[in-house]
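Quick one:
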Amino acid sequence: MQVSLQLDDELSQLERRMLDAHLQRCAECRAYAADLTTFTHQLRSAPLEPLRRPVVVARPRRLAFARLQAGVAAAIAIVAVGVASQTSQWGQSDTTPSSFEGTVAQFPTRTELDRELAIFESLPARRTVSLGSNFF
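Output:
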């Protein structure tokens, strides 16, 4: 790999020195580097051969990309509708105790239910205050 990079002049000065030092010590790598250098010079100096048929690179189909765009647009629309419906409910929610009538609280365990009931029973009793008709 390093020999090929050296032939393409892509090694740094440090890497070239390290490769040269290794090639001085290793006869097998030195023989490989010589063969690769000879082959590369022969290949680069050989005349170009004309092609019998032209090389055609097929362009990717745009249909797949269009389908992806449609899918992303549909997902964004669904998210937008969901967010809009949630935000409109937040502005209209009524937090008076009567708005919770008919709702059912579900607890995963009996222990959690008992704990919530104990908290509820420890709260002071609420008094109903009549504001009268002349308040507003």
